[in-house]
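LOG
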Amino acid sequence: MSVDNQGLLAQLIRELVRLPGIGQKTAQRLAFHLLKTERDEALRLAEAIRAVKEGLVFCRRCRNIAEGELCEFCRDPKRDHTKILVVEEPSTLYAIERTGGFRGLYHVLLGSLSPLDGIGPSDIRAQELVDRLKDGGVQEVILATNPTIEGEATAIYLTKLIKPFGARVSRIAYGIPVGMDIEYADEVTLIKSIEGRRDL
């Protein structure tokens, strides 16, 4: 049974809508853009997607995205191996890395605790973090989970796991974005900015 052109286009739009942040209209624009694009350019995109799915794995040590057993950060001898920054997802890791402000190692949980969604301690990569602490040498673990109920619960849970190893546990500060008037900040942001205050 052959699929007509309208069916092929509809199938592409359906697949594009499944991507995060892509609605129906954006998916249609992308689909028509791909139709107008040179064949080689469209196939390069398809090949890049295939290569990512076949060639990338999770780092054995930190659970970041890697092309081999270890990711680029775990392989780098110039990074500070005494500090580990914990994030929920690889996308957060790369956002932090773009700032250039952290030169330690990372640990990716691949999620956060959410009992209502059935996500418990065994579903996040907390045990792998504990195993890294058992190896010794880690002086500080910086928790950079999201400022949500799930992220806060995860941070509290991890703190209890980490404390017995004697490493310092810190939490990134949340506060008012640079350039924003304080009066427009929501209550949670204001509370977090006050809690995260530092000496001058």
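LOG (cont.) second protein
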Amino acid sequence: MRFVLHLIGAVVVAVILGLGSAYYVARYAVQGEALVANGPWVTNLETGGTDADIYTRAFVALTGLLALNKSETIYYNATADSDGNALDGRCSYRIEGRDPDARWWSMTVYGRDHYLVDNPSKRYSVSQTTVTREPGGSFVVRLSTVEETGNWIATSPDGFQVTLRLYNPGVSVREEPGSVPLPAIVKESCS
């Protein structure tokens, strides 16, 4: 009888460890050769592909990305600024740059829970067609918890990430996703 109880206990521990480690890897540790960094932005070249491994597919399912086919869209995510420091919900940032090489693009802020950041102004993203540009064609988008006029997206004091979607990316993006010009993320101030 004692042996059976030990065996049941071992099976329960093995199942908990197995499921827990699979959940952790799928949710937080999707790494590998498919990840490409470009400044503060990181993309997984398997996202939206039929060749994606089970962990990438699980990560997409868990985070609600609803990825289009990788031939149609490349997704870059930023959890750090251009200096490599983690994005902090108590700080204000600016994203500055020019239009990425794509037919259309958008930048969206998500909270730590991978959902849009709730805010009274309903300002969740900017896109190629909504961003206001400077006279030379560049743009500056502000990220903060305090509402601003112009190009502004609300952030969460609990933490956030930014997703840059490039729809119908140009040949340069598809061939060299780690070296094409992408906007910089610059910390301005912290409270």
